[in-house]
Specification:
single chain, alpha/beta, TIM Barrel, 10 strands
Length: 239
């Protein structure tokens, strides 16, 4: 089993010593984008996406004061976050990747916010585990704004039904929406669509924007941006 670097947009991997510098650069970028949009930077929350980053690579960000982190995989998170949270108990952990219904129990136990609720079967599984555990992560509905068949998320025209079922049938409190725009599309139209759906339902959280497009997301009202590569560098894929 080997790890093969994936260079994003020609950027070399960032070493552990550079994590704090990358984090500072992203924080400054958030402040600039918020100022350009005439928004208070405090209304934009940075989720440092640490998927595939080992625990020792996350520590520099923790030492620099970052406390909100995002992960894509339940199993990976179980392996590294309990020990980190014992050392840094005020961490807020977000699941930003797809969630299988059979992982709902672990997700409810481990995460403070789940961004990827996108179907009724998952809503039912989460409701069951929330009732069992007595612990209620904050929940966001993932919207597939580009209607991409290979990507998770509910279609924009199906959000109303899913939201009503989550609340009415399963008693879930839905706090916001998340999207990942198509790679080849200008992102702003997708961010605008997500914002319009959120306003229609008075949902306060908009999770949108990543390393390449978070300034545009902030312009369009993002409350949470999910940035990984610009902080932790090139990811690795396990072969």
């Amino acid at each position: 089993m080997t790890d093969t670097p994936i260079p994003p947009a020609g950027k070399p991997p960032v070493g552990e010593a550079d994590v704090a510098a990358g984090l500072a650069e992203v924080r400054a970028g958030i402040r600039r984008a918020a100022a350009d949009a005439e928004r208070d930077p405090a209304t934009v929350h940075l989720i440092a996406v640490s998927k595939t980053v080992p625990a020792k690579g996350i520590v520099p960000a923790l030492e620099a004061g970052q406390r909100v982190f995002g992960e894509n995989y339940v199993q990976e998170s179980r392996g590294k976050w309990p020990d980190l949270r014992a050392r840094y108990p005020d961490v807020e952990l977000h699941l930003v990747g797809p969630l299988q219904s059979n992982k709902a129990r672990e997700a409810v136990e481990l995460f403070d916010v789940i961004h990827s609720l996108d179907r009724l079967s998952l809503a039912a599984a989460l409701a069951k585990e929330i009732a069992r555990a007595g612990r209620a992560p904050r929940l966001l509905i993932q919207v597939n704004t580009g209607d991409e068949p290979q990507k998770g998320g509910v279609a924009p025209d199906a959000v109303d039904v899913l939201l009503a079922e989550c609340i009415g049938t399963h008693g879930l409190a839905i706090e916001g929406l998340m999207c990942v725009p198509p790679v080849d599309d200008p992102p702003s139209a997708h961010f605008a669509l997500l914002g319009a759906i959120a306003r229609r339902h008075n949902l306060p959280i908009l999770s949108m924007g990543m390393s390449a497009d978070y300034p545009a997301a902030i312009q369009m009202g993002a409350t949470h941006v999910r940035v990984g590569t610009s902080i932790f560098g090139a990811r690795t894929r396990t072969a």
